[in-house]
Amino acid sequence: MSNPTTAVPVHDERPPAAAAPAAAKRPGAPRNRAREWATRAPLLPALIFLIVVTQLPFVATLVISLFDWNSFRPDRREFAGLENYKTVLSDEALRDSIVTTVLLTASVVIVSVVLGLLLALLLDRKFRGRGLVRTMLIAPFLLVPVASALLWKHALYNPEYGLFNGVLNWLGGPQPEWLTDTPLIAVEASLIWQWTPFMMLILLAGLQSRPLETMEAARLDGAGNWQIFRYLTLPHLRRYLELGTLLGSIYIVQNFDAVFTMTRGGLDTANLPYTIYETFYNAHEYGLASAAGVVVVIGTIIIATFALRVVSSLFREEVSHA
Amino acid sequence: MPVLTLRAARIPVVALTAGALLTGCAGMGGGSSGDKTVNVLMVNNPQMVDLQKLTKKYFTKETGITVRFTMMPENEVRDKISQDFANQARQYDVATISNYEVPFYAENDWLLPLDSYAAKDKAFDQKDILPSMRESLTAEDGKLYAEPFYGESSFLMYRKDILAENHLKMPEHPTWQQVADIAAKVDGSRKGMNGICLRGLPGWGELMAPLTTVVNTFGGTWFTKDWKAQLDSPEFTKATKFYVDLVRKHGEAGAAQSGFAECLNNLTQGKSAMWYDATSAAGSLEAAKSPVKGKIGYVQAPVEKTESSGWLYTWAWGVQKASRHPDNAWKFISWASSKEYEALVGKEFGWSNVPAGKRSSTYTNPDYKDTAGTFSEETRKAITSAKPRDPGVQPRPTIGIQFVDIPEFADLGTKVAQEISAAIAGKQSVETALKNSQKLAEKVAEEYR
């Protein structure tokens, strides 16, 4: 998994929802249409390439998900209709992993956004060494996920030689077994550590694009810090919060490294990607794994939509208050 | 100030999605050209990496055969092999398969029998291959389907100094009860040191391997000869309870997430006094930089009702039945699994890196014994005394010591390990874990009755 780190100056964009409709078409204007196609043509190869590399594999997955197919028994491959989907939704282990995925994603996204917002607000102020602090805060996000998971499992959580228990021991405190006592929370903590910087970056971009004149004006009108934050900053950050939530959800739903490395799916920490991995590589059930994969895609869409709805509704209230 | 705009952010997302979908179709190797090539698919273990380094310089130079290697992690390699071999797609001539896959791959008619090649190749010296190894790579039809590259069993490792401090003596052939007693006595004898490290990390190749050997020697089995699941039988329960209690009382902290790697850490860091695990672990414990080098004693796997209880595992070379270059494939196997190759590794990378555990001659080699003296004899004993067809006290439906040799076992073993790992974590009782496991095992057994 690579991180998008395109460095570009932020500029205010219109939200997609409010994008102007396509240029008004005059019916029966063939020359116009030809011109339209002339502008589109250079983009077509890219579009076709996109469809080939993203949509076709997904269609293939959809097709495979309709088959009963175990790779160790190739002679017994047969069309099974929606049988695999029934199994995914009725099999206890798979059902549990759906719940785990939702819990994991929701908690990691929400906590990361909140922490990211706090850190962004801090970094938005001018102080000495700001650049250094910013770089240090971004570091966790630049770490390879599996390396981060290994670091947390061994260097921090391990009750025999990990840092946490070492410090607690030195302070004379208790010696909890983090991954055994609170397995899911332990996994979540490591993911939050990785994803907070990402949220922070997005929200910081939002903060730095605030129109300063408005802030000044508000201050002159006697608005306090909290009011400025509540009625100016937060509404302005709306799209950035949406983006962070959306991207975070999409990535964290797919997270595999943390569960695989830290707990091997034990103690009810198996999320869907890990369960799919097990189904595919251990059980060699291609059809079932594909069906579970399709369920993840649907789930991601639902989560993302839901997250966006929530964020949007918050702001709709804002507007009605204003 | 590196930040994202909405527009810029979309592209990587799309690219990532595409990447994730494409990974499934990567690595399509070329077909064959000419007949001086052989395509090898292997697991990315250190011994294989060494092999790749030496092949061109020695094998290709001698024979003129070009070897094209593809290396992958264990799970991925299994999957790739099953795809290529199932369809007899002939992308690979040779692949590393373990003794877990050989029997049912052979049954699926995916592998080329190697008996005639081995018989003709006098220099290879098939009789030098350890008998239990040969047996575990022989299918139900009595034919040999793979040649071992290296092999391992399991044994008990213990800190000689810690036992001596406590005036304890490790018996030559300990029983599990004796080991549990010693574990209780040495537990905490030094600050932060536990009695014994045992795997608790879920996985058919993690927790399930040592636990199944304990089950065998306690008189339990996964399935009866006629495919009745036995996970809730008194013997299986007693063995699991023993294992879970031992690791909970005198084992390492965080046992439910401890696998081979964590226990190895615990031993080298002086956090555990004993460890029951793979014979291959000894190489790391006795490595030049290991802080416990020379402090470790080795004895055979603890037993209760059987004479031996060590497991048997090997990475071996199998040839795809439809291979276009079966002769080249054999030439490569015959070189990679030869005595000469072992000597070559000894010379080039040091004797501790030799792919051992498959030939009797390795254990009479003075150079090897100098390096691996402390544990080599115990390793040899463990491998030779392993009985893959009769690992317990009752007849078994399949070959295999620490696994049941059916394709479904990887999944079943992993799911059962999840349950027992939860018992180790104290989240449920052993009875509950085994009751759930019995249901899963019954479902699998039904297909075989």
Automatic annotation (TrEMBL), chain A:
It is a multi-pass membrane protein. InterPro entries: MetI-like, MetI-like_sf. The keyword Ribosomal protein does not apply. Residues 16-31 have a biased composition (Low complexity). Residues 1-31 are annotated as: Disordered. The chain crosses the membrane at residues 43-67, 98-123, 135-152, 184-207, 286-308. It is found in: Cell membrane. Keywords: Cell membrane, Membrane, Transmembrane, Transmembrane helix, Transport. Residues 98-307 form the ABC transmembrane type-1 domain. CDD domains: TM_PBP2. Belongs to the binding-protein-dependent transport system permease family. This is Sugar ABC transporter permease.
Automatic annotation (TrEMBL), chain B:
PROSITE patterns: PROKAR_LIPOPROTEIN. InterPro entries: Bact_solute-bd_prot1 (IPR050490), SBP (IPR006059). It comes from the Bacteria. This is Sugar ABC transporter substrate-binding protein.
